[in-house]
Structure to design on (1023 residues):
């Protein structure tokens, strides 16, 4: 059932917002969050932040969250549908802030458009967790194809809430709400600032007021926007203009059947079945566009080449948005057999981006294929070691870095003689000779 | 052509279609009637002569081009001033919207125009439809055409009076707690409040969203049926999510005899306090008229009907507060000049833009919805609504129609009822049907006055809802005002 | 449990309806009368009775097509702004929302 939530504020054309009441479309839902390494170690137990918290669960007791063995947490969420508010521009004040504005301008174009609001329990413990949570959410929604989730464009927005409690106590303190969060970095930095600010106030014996604060990224601080003196009475009642919406089992089953493979499942499949490094798998599975090109490129690549395909997709593809899966596959093949260097691969990608050039032919035409046999390269290594006695002495004196200079000399010599070099192989051979 | 107040809507449309007279002639005749009589009656807030003549001309051109004309071709129609019509102001008889120019056209208005009707203008009403006498209009009162010292009823008093005075053939009104039926009764015309959802509310300024329903006034049942067909014929309106398909031809059973029909009477209501003896006699006379024609009288009970007033005066003000919150002087409507802050601007715009009754209803709604109070009144009121709806369901198992008075009394004098809560109590007979969503036609028993049609036996078959079995007509019978 | 003038003033403040002292007196009388009128609603035995929030009891899941409405129903900006008391460019304009005296903390 939809409800009307009344408040006199001009961002709502009717002075009430159509929203959901006690029963929302998603209740007792959850999102699994992987908080590994530093994030997990950082998880102290005196700070709780939530995202997009609505008044409904103000001051709720923190939910005890089970920590799974793999360091993942289950974050309880609730999702409701409501209408968007108008866009307001505050004029005459500092940094577009409402507090000192002399007047405000209102654009109702997006007002009334449906949106979903997702609320977490006050369970996220660190700014980093909040950031991870938002990233995960963005990935999930993008994979579902329900929004492009751009914080910059406003198709995904987020408020952060902070309340502290003393170590060893269970009751959360008064919360403040952070607005003007337009990037994940803003979210992280804003929460970090706000946690410190509240801690300082409390340590000095001060009081936290329930208020909305504005994050100013340029000054790295939050300032008060609006103080809530009393709990608002929104005069909520069922909207008589809108029929209730009944989520039937058929509707739910049909919706469930349309859910594509979600990032976590994708990631696990990449690791288990395709042998990807977990880090690469996470990154590829998180972005449906990237996953699509990866899967197309991996399709038909040899089993051993697939991890290299992932490597190319993760490390080289950004900035090359007109590369075909076949080109990625070709390039990964060259890298996998060590026929070109990583730096060359980047050059190849720059060149073939937006063309139908085959990377293999491109490399062969230019004779970029590097030598892969030590026999071929041994004479060059001999020549350089014989010539650069000073560097050899330095190496033996403990300056291992000098090997880089020697590799450079080898590559130069190879080029001068018209042979194909191989810096990786040169490095290996030089080190063996110097250590031996 | 004949005097337009002697023609039915069907006769006007037929005459225009046959070329006996032109739509422009009819429009001019209506404009003449308005200029002659409306000085005294004051039914109109705005006469849209230019729109009327342009629409009539278009109708005549279509006829000249050999096109088929609509069932209301050339019929002069007035619209209650809470209905949007492009090219007119929509004021709701409030200072708040005194200068508000319609930004679009309401579905109900558009459907009348699509059927060929000629828009004569906007009719007076109680401010934002709060009232039963049209006395709360911010602009002027409307006088009952039968006796100008008496009220025309309300809130659709202007619409009823314009039809009764013969200024237009048909008018649209809206009914939240009796605002079509009571003025129809007091002005001696036929009015119908259709089943909730039968007519789109899109473009009609909302009062109580779960109670409001648009319906027609006419000087006879056939005209009302013709208008109902125009309002519902195109099916549900996607712009109103409570709008329903109403697959009924209202003209189909117009001539059916009433013989064998079971007519429900509610003894408990006939004994109700406040029902005047003359009104009681009128009802009894109407029942006799029906039994004379072979209808069977059946006593039915509506055990929870007494709670309707309380339930209505919880639900309606709450919805009104919510629906009228948008009038804050920002996007449209009266804006208090020279305010330093928004809060000051809204509070003063609302204080000076709204009349007393509009403020009272909103204040009551704001209180009843507040936390802690909501559970004591609003929720039980909606539970009582279930009881009343069930009462009607049970009653309609025993009868086809129920006869009820639309008002406890005939038209009263201006200022006669000054206490607002006493005025509320007079809605006793009508509001239970808004609460239950029922349809109800208000019918004239006898109209011994010039220019008005006499009674005719007719049976109105209302909208049949696909998923509901309640589909009985309520032929409402009472005498004219004065 | 009669409503006091102070209660009524609080409601008026919330409902954004400024009342003069005389209006507040009248409104307080009215509010108490009106509450008396609806009071019977609390005397019913409603145990187990489902509320009817809507007269069309079985109406549910009314949805429009998920497509762009390409009818003529769009409200042009100049029309949307034409009834506004104050506007600027393509915006509605309102005076200071918080007043200009609220500082940082």
């Amino acid at each position: 059932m939809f409800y009307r939530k009344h408040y006199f504020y001009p961002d709502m054309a009717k002075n009430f917002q159509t929203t959901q009441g006690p029963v929302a479309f998603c209740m007792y839902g959850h999102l699994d969050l992987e908080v590994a390494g530093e994030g997990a170690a950082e998880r102290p137990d005196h700070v709780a932040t939530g995202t997009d918290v609505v008044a409904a669960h103000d001051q709720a007791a923190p939910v005890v969250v089970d920590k799974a063995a793999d360091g993942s947490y289950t974050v309880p969420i609730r999702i409701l549908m409501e209408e968007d508010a108008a866009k307001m521009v505050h004029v005459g004040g500092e940094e577009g802030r409402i507090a000192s504005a002399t007047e405000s301008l209102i654009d109702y174009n997006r007002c009334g458009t449906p949106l979903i609001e997702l609320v977490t329990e006050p369970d996220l413990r660190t700014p980093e967790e909040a950031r991870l949570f938002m990233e995960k959410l963005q990935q999930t929604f993008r994979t579902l194809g329900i929004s492009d989730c751009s914080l910059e464009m406003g198709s995904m927005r987020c408020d952060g809430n902070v309340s502290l409690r003393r170590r060893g106590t269970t009751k959360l303190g008064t919360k403040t709400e952070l607005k003007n969060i337009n990037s994940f970095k803003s979210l992280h930095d804003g929460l970090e600032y706000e946690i410190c600010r509240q801690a300082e106030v409390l340590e000095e014996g001060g009081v936290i007021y329930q208020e909305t604060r504005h994050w100013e990224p340029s000054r790295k601080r939050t300032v008060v926007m609006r103080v809530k003196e009393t709990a608002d009475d929104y005069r909520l009642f069922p909207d008589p203009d809108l029929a209730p919406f009944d989520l039937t089992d058929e509707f739910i089953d049909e919706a469930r059947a349309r859910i594509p493979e979600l990032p976590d499942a994708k990631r696990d499949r990449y690791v288990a079945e395709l042998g990807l490094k977990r880090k690469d798998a996470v990154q590829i599975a998180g972005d449906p566009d990237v996953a699509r090109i990866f899967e197309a490129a991996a399709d038909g690549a040899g089993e051993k080449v697939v991890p290299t395909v992932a490597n190319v997709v993760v490390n080289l593809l950004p900035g090359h948005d007109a590369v075909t899966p076949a080109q990625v596959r070709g390039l990964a093949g060259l890298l996998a057999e060590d026929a070109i260097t990583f730096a060359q691969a980047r050059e190849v990608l720059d060149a073939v981006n937006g063309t139908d050039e085959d990377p293999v032919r491109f490399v062969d035409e230019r004779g970029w294929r590097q030598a892969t046999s030590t026999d071929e390269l041994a004479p060059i290594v001999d020549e350089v070691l014989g010539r650069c006695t000073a560097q050899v002495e330095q190496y033996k004196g403990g300056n291992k870095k000098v090997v880089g200079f020697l590799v450079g000399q080898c590559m130069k010599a190879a080029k001068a003689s018209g042979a194909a070099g191989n810096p990786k192989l040169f490095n290996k051979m030089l080190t063996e000779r110097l250590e031996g | 052509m004949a005097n337009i107040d002697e023609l039915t809507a069907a006769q006007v449309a037929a005459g225009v279609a046959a070329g006996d007279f032109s739509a422009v002639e009819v429009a001019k005749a209506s404009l003449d009637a308005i200029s002659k009589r409306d000085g005294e009656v004051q039914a109109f807030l705005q006469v849209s002569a230019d729109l009327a003549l342009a629409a009539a001309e278009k109708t005549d051109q279509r006829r000249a081009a050999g096109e088929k004309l609509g069932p209301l071709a050339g019929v002069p129609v007035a619209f209650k001033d809470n209905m949007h019509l492009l090219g007119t102001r929509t004021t709701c008889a409030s200072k708040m919207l005194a200068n508000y120019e319609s930004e679009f056209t309401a579905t109900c208005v558009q459907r009348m125009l699509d059927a060929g009707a000629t828009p004569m203008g906007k009719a007076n009403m109680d401010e934002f439809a709060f009232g039963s006498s049209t006395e709360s209009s911010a602009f002027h009162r409307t006088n009952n055409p039968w006796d100008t010292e008496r009220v025309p009823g309300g809130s659709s008093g202007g619409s009823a009076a314009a039809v009764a005075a013969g200024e237009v053939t048909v008018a649209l009104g809206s009914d939240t707690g009796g605002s079509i039926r009571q003025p129809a009764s007091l002005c001696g015309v036929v009015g119908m409040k259709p089943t909730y959802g039968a007519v789109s509310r899109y473009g009609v300024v909302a009062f109580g969203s779960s109670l409001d329903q648009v319906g027609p006034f006419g000087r006879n049942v056939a005209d009302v049926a013709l208008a109902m067909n125009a309002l519902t014929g195109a099916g549900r309106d996607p712009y109103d999510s409570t709008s329903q398909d109403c697959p009924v031809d209202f003209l189909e059973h117009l001539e059916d005899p009433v013989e064998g029909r079971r007519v429900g009477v509610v003894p408990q209501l006939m004994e109700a306090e406040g029902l005047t003896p003359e009104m009681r006699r009128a009802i009894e006379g109407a029942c006799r008229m029906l039994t004379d024609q072979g209808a069977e009288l059946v006593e039915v009970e509506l055990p929870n009907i007494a709670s309707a007033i309380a339930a209505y005066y919880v639900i309606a003000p709450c919805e009104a507060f919510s629906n009228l919150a948008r009038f804050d002087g920002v996007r449209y409507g009266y804006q208090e000049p020279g305010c330093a802050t928004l809060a000051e601007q809204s509070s003063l715009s609302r204080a000076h833009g709204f009349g007393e009754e509009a403020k009272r209803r909103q204040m009551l709604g704001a209180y009843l919805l507040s936390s802690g109070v909501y559970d004591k009144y609003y929720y039980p009121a909606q539970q009582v609504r279930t009881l009343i709806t069930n009462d009607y369901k049970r009653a309609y198992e025993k009868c086809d129609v129920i006869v009820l008075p639309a008002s406890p009394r005939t038209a009263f004098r201006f200022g006669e009822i000054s206490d607002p809560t006493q005025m509320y109590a007079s809605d006793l007979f009508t509001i239970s049907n808004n609460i239950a969503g029922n349809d109800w036609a208000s019918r004239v028993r006898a109209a011994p006055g010039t220019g008005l049609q006499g009674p005719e036996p007719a049976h109105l078959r209302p909208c049949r809802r696909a998923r509901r079995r309640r589909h009985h007509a309520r032929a409402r019978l009472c005498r004219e005002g004065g | 449990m009669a409503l006091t003038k102070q209660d009524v003033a609080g409601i008026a403040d919330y409902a954004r309806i400024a009342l003069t002292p005389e209006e507040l007196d009248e409104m307080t009388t009215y509010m108490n009368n009106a509450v008396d009128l609806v009071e019977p609603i609390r005397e019913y035995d409603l145990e187990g009775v489902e509320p009817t929030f809507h007269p069309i009891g079985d109406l549910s899941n009314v949805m429009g097509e998920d497509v762009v409405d390409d009818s003529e129903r769009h409200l042009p900006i100049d029309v949307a702004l034409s009834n506004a008391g104050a506007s600027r460019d393509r915006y509605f304009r309102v005076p200071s929302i918080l007043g200009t005296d609220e500082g940082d903390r």
